[in-house]
Design goal:
- The model has no long low-confidence stretch (mean pLDDT about 90).
- By secondary structure, this protein is mainly beta.
- The chain has a domain of about 70 residues: OB fold (Dihydrolipoamide Acetyltransferase, E2P).
- This is CSD domain-containing protein.
Amino acid sequence: MEPSTTPPPPTSSAPSKPPATPSDQRPKDIVVGRVTRGGEGPCYGMVTDDGREYALYSTAGTKLAEGNTVKIRFEPLRLKIYCGPGEHISALEITVVK
């Protein structure tokens, strides 16, 4: 019997540069962060892990405690109301992350 002469498997080379767009797209209407101003609304404050501050407006009456981690589905705030420092957004859905 003759020894097998199969060629070695092909090797992949490293990419020359990173992809132009991320492979996992993030939703543009969701933010996650820690509550900095809580209460029963309608205004709340939160800050994301990267330090971005948001002023949230919601009429749902959700009770949030300072320090809670929340996931917010939002849209731009169309009311002329001041809810504190940060980017003003209207919270459509607030989920407390356990």
